[in-house]
Amino acid sequence: MIREKLIDKQIGDNKKFRWRSHEISRIEGLSDGVFAFAVTLLVVSLEVPRTFAELMQTMRGFGAFAISFTLLFIVWFNQYKFFRRYGLQDNITMVLNAVLLFVVLFYVYPLKFVFTLMLNMLTGGGGQIRLPNGALERMVENTDQVAVLMIIFGAGYVAVFGVFVLLYWHAYRRRALLDLNELEVFDTREDIQESALNVGIGIVSITLALAGGGRFAGVAGMTYMLCPIVLTLHGMMMGKRRRRLEQQFSVSRPTALESR
């Protein structure tokens, strides 16, 4: 299993946050199955192309599949790190993880549709797609439909990162039970903030699509270009704060010799 190999090689362990779980729980086992099924749903076709034309049609969906797969992997990897760091298996964690899996499965098709449409437009396809019977049909009829699509996509985006906000907040509330040190508490708050920023960007996109309809549909989609900018600035700011805290932590913590 991929998760077992990652755990054995300690992938995702930056040596700054102690792992509290080195075994795969039943929650994670179920999660891996759900994510694997979601990736299967992303595949363009489960049948081997029978003609060159069918092969080319299948290859045209590679870009959307690659982007969607990458986003799903990011969600999966964040969940993987959460369970490694905190090892929580209580009822709240199970419910929140179940909500995450539900959202992932429900939004697989909208996710792929959005990026198929985007790449189609960028590559000069004009928003048209060839159906299995050979007929050409527009993926969306008007900008109002694009606005609705942005609302659907944004709702899934907000839901996913909203769940991570709640998961990390739950871990933060149990920081005493988990015996989190000062640096680990800081990292947990940083993860809450990062997920909350993603939620905020998604809400801005939804608001633009709701308020402006088709007029602001393009702007609503471009809102997600704020993610790398906002998250990079946040990471730089929190990185400086963490380095200062590391210095204070190393100074205030007595060495084994001094403590005797």
- What helical percentage do the residues reach? over 70%
Which segments are poorly predicted (pLDDT under 50) over 5 or more consecutive residues?
Answer: 255-260
How much of the polypeptide forms β-strand, as a percent range? under 5%
* H/E series: HHHHHHEEHHHHH
| Main structural class | mainly alpha
Mean pLDDT: 86
Total E-strand runs: 2
Tally of separate helices: 11
Q: In this structure, how is the largest beta sheet organized?
A: 2 strands, antiparallel
Oligomer: single chain
Query: What overall geometry do the principal axes of the alpha carbons give?
Result: globular
Question: How far apart are the first and last residues' alpha carbons, in Å?
Answer: 45 Å
What does this structure look like?
This protein has about 260 residues and is mainly alpha-helical. The protein is about 70% helix and about 0% strand. The chain contains eleven helices and two strands, in the order ααααααββααααα. The chain has a two-stranded antiparallel ribbon with strand order 1-2. Helix 2 packs parallel to helix 5, helix 4 crosses helix 6 and helix 7 runs antiparallel to helix 9. The C terminus is likely disordered.
